[in-house]
Amino acid sequence: MTPAPEYDFETLVDRTDTGSVKWELMRERGGDVPAGIAPLSTADLDFLPAPEITRGLREHLESAVLGYTGPTPALFSAIQMWQAVRHRWAIDTGWISLMPGVVTGLFAGVRAASEEGDGVALLTPAYPPMVDAIEKTGRRIIRVPLDGEGGRYRIDFAALADALSGEDVSVLILCSPHNPTGRVWTYTELEEIAHLARAHDVTVIADEIHADIVHKGFEHILFAAISEDATSRTITLSSASKSFNLAGVQTSWAIIENAELRAAYERELEAWGFHFVNCLGYRAIEIAYTEASDWLEGLLELVARNDRVSREFFAEHFPEVSIAPLEGTFLQWIDFRKLGIDECELTRLHDQEAHVFFEHGRTFGAPGFERLNLGTPTRVLEEALARLAEVHGR
């Protein structure tokens, strides 16, 4: 689908001094960064929101009272519709529990489904807050390294089975699609995970925040939809924050069919004094899911184009560098290890000299890799890659 002319994915919004986490971290890492440079790190976008969302919120603010506000039936209906239409999963709105962000859900899910000292299995490399959710709640992390031989990452099911069979291992955290490797797990892979989860009676916390960012030739399958047993033992964490760049409205949710598990999860939120999400988030999500799907299609086209641009660049200038196939997410996973450059020097070159601000692989437990955010104007990406080539003498 061709995006409507009003959808502008080529104008960079300068977020300097706006409180943007991504841009402020760039200043911390790069010092005196020249004007016009945008970071390619944190997984959010530097575009204006979909105009449908902006217009809808503006109209909403004309009559909205910004007091204590609970969720509306329209929000739950929009989430239910999106799951049914986009992902072919029929859910009951009563399964939905709101929280400010998926990271909050990771912490609450781990606490709800395990006890202190329990083991929690995690496929690695992994999104850093997943590690935090395990270690900072007093659980033991059981790392199950993905097999990246050949560039496309695969699950070592023998290693996963061994991890889940360990004493007091009660949870598996599954990132689907996988951040940072870009894998979209197949039905066969998810079915085998479900089989192991049932065999070893573990709860699966499925972070599916990137579910809508899936590229041509691939299909995201919700883990909880694999079987009735999977549905009953899964905490599915979701949001529109990646699909529509809405992390700032702090509205995410867990979908939990199992009433006992859902009650335990909600007790964890209550123990933190949590009551409401952002009152504007209810309306923003509703608009995104009911009016802005064409904008998402435009974003997917941009990401696919930027993926091609990046791969062509690296093939020409850095043939020894490999990039994992991009099946889902807007995040490329790039292996720089064959350059033979020390990790600290690689970081210095990229941050201090090239001013190309990747998310460094060591934060995912994979030194020598870099994660590149493709959700940026193509011009910005091309300029960053040109700086990278210059600094490396390519």
TrEMBL record:
<dbReference type="InterPro" id="IPR051798">
    <property type="entry name" value="Class-II_PLP-Dep_Aminotrans"/>
</dbReference>
<feature type="domain" description="Aminotransferase class I/classII large">
    <location>
        <begin position="40"/>
        <end position="388"/>
    </location>
</feature>
<dbReference type="GO" id="GO:0008483">
    <property type="term" value="F:transaminase activity"/>
</dbReference>
<dbReference type="InterPro" id="IPR004839">
    <property type="entry name" value="Aminotransferase_I/II_large"/>
</dbReference>
<dbReference type="InterPro" id="IPR015422">
    <property type="entry name" value="PyrdxlP-dep_Trfase_small"/>
</dbReference>
<dbReference type="InterPro" id="IPR015424">
    <property type="entry name" value="PyrdxlP-dep_Trfase"/>
</dbReference>
<protein>
    <recommendedName>
        <fullName>cysteine-S-conjugate beta-lyase</fullName>
        <ecNumber>4.4.1.13</ecNumber>
    </recommendedName>
</protein>
<dbReference type="Pfam" id="PF00155">
    <property type="entry name" value="Aminotran_1_2"/>
</dbReference>
<dbReference type="InterPro" id="IPR015421">
    <property type="entry name" value="PyrdxlP-dep_Trfase_major"/>
</dbReference>
<keyword id="KW-0456">Lyase</keyword>
<keyword id="KW-0808">Transferase</keyword>
<dbReference type="InterPro" id="IPR027619">
    <property type="entry name" value="C-S_lyase_PatB-like"/>
</dbReference>
<keyword id="KW-0663">Pyridoxal phosphate</keyword>
<comment type="similarity">
    <text>Belongs to the class-II pyridoxal-phosphate-dependent aminotransferase family. MalY/PatB cystathionine beta-lyase subfamily.</text>
</comment>
<keyword id="KW-0032">Aminotransferase</keyword>
